[in-house]
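User: what does the whole thing look like in 3D?
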Amino acid sequence: MTDSAESEKAPGSLTLTPELAAYLAEQVRLQVEEELRKRGLESPRPKRVALIASKGTLDMAYPPLILATTAAAMDMEAAIFFTLYGIDIIKKRTCSDLKVPSLANPAMPVPVPNIVGVLPGMTWMASWMMKDWMKKGGVPTIPDLLDMARENGVRLIACQMSLDVLGIKKEELIDGLEFAGAGAFLDYAAEADITLFV
Amino acid sequence: MTDSAESEKAPGSLTLTPELAAYLAEQVRLQVEEELRKRGLESPRPKRVALIASKGTLDMAYPPLILATTAAAMDMEAAIFFTLYGIDIIKKRTCSDLKVPSLANPAMPVPVPNIVGVLPGMTWMASWMMKDWMKKGGVPTIPDLLDMARENGVRLIACQMSLDVLGIKKEELIDGLEFAGAGAFLDYAAEADITLFV
Amino acid sequence: MTDSAESEKAPGSLTLTPELAAYLAEQVRLQVEEELRKRGLESPRPKRVALIASKGTLDMAYPPLILATTAAAMDMEAAIFFTLYGIDIIKKRTCSDLKVPSLANPAMPVPVPNIVGVLPGMTWMASWMMKDWMKKGGVPTIPDLLDMARENGVRLIACQMSLDVLGIKKEELIDGLEFAGAGAFLDYAAEADITLFV
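Assistant: Here's the predicted 3D structure for the full assembly of 594 residues, as structure tokens:
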């Protein structure tokens, strides 16, 4: 055993040469890698946001789209799974014309008695007002948010079961969508850092 | 020190026999286990889904039940915490007869003006239509989804505080439930991979 | 090489002294620290709950406040991000007077036909009933829950974009709030163990 000056003297009777120390460190690194891999902790990856959009009203179309596009701008991965009424957000015919009822929501910015809210024209008026507020507040429109999402790599996934149940054809939907079931969403969301049901 | 042919030659002056390498690797593995355990990173466990069902309408009863039963079929752990109006989903009297209002939701598949939606019979009609679509789309009924959930190990947890507030007795609820508070849900969800509030 | 009695005998020809074992353990600890740090898994930290409160009705004000205060009592970190209608929960004028509509919710504990639910006074009555049930069930009022939240370190964050859109000034809101955008919420939630959209 050579006892070179630069070798670190391990406690005890064994001489720990720099080479042996490096060898042991590598063994430790490999073992740690393996144990972490077994626990599903792979090497660092981007943060991930998995959202479900289940509502088709104008007010509830904003949260998933704003959260997903903001996440994408922060270099996070993001996907929105459109299901149930949420399909309306990605339908060509409805996406630019979503509505919010002026009814059964006492927290509306301009609350209207329900007896008035049921009258014809009130839903149209509430929807027009909300679009106007959003515009003045600098919030993009729903079609613009959809464009921003697709341009920035947000995955827009249409729930196949919802399409089947509602009898909606793919041609009725906007471009750039994926089609999948609840299982695919769960697979994606199981690796996500943020999961929200809107 | 024997220097057998099959022994790996460690850098430095030390001969690392296969036995010694295996011994060191095991020491490292035990140490890594211990360090990870201290950090709460136990051995691999199934993915876990923690859901809150707070709505008692027919439309919003499907998402938690479909997500939980799908998760169970994928060998994930799943639990649904029924709270507030969500208690209706696990009440004997209401679980097979949940209703969806044809009101205040402009995204209904067959939208009806609110002035019509308030009329007697409209909620019944909307509920009947939704059940019919689901049936044609091959989606199980709510009672069937509840059975599938229990048979596949999904934990169905009734919020004790909601039962107290609403004055509902355990006898009024379906079998196979657990009873717990928000704290128990938070404990479960803190270890979950997917958490959603429906 | 000394062969002391207390040293553990490694297989093969090498004696692993207690000092060498300690040296290896320290190498393992440092390596585990480093690999976990790379994966964003710092030393053990409290569990964290990140909630969005987007509804401003009385019924949907309880879940985020009850979950957050319960989490705080369990030594978890918690924050609520108030956005959209949820701003009503933290407005001085409305926080103690939130309302629940007796409309479009067939799962109300005392369901009322929608044709009756639209009548003037019905929302007031439903709100009064819900407050009464909660009181009898021992659930604190919304203002009390807000106080409990602030006293126990729950972070209450008002969505700046919502304030801008709705034209609400900070003076109109309760004390002890933070102000931030969706990006700040995503940053916080990305490190959370439980994320829920109410």
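In plain terms: Residues 18-38 of chain C form the longest helix (21 residues). Strands of chain C lie at 8-9, 15-16, 48-53, 77-82, 155-159, 178-180, 194-197.
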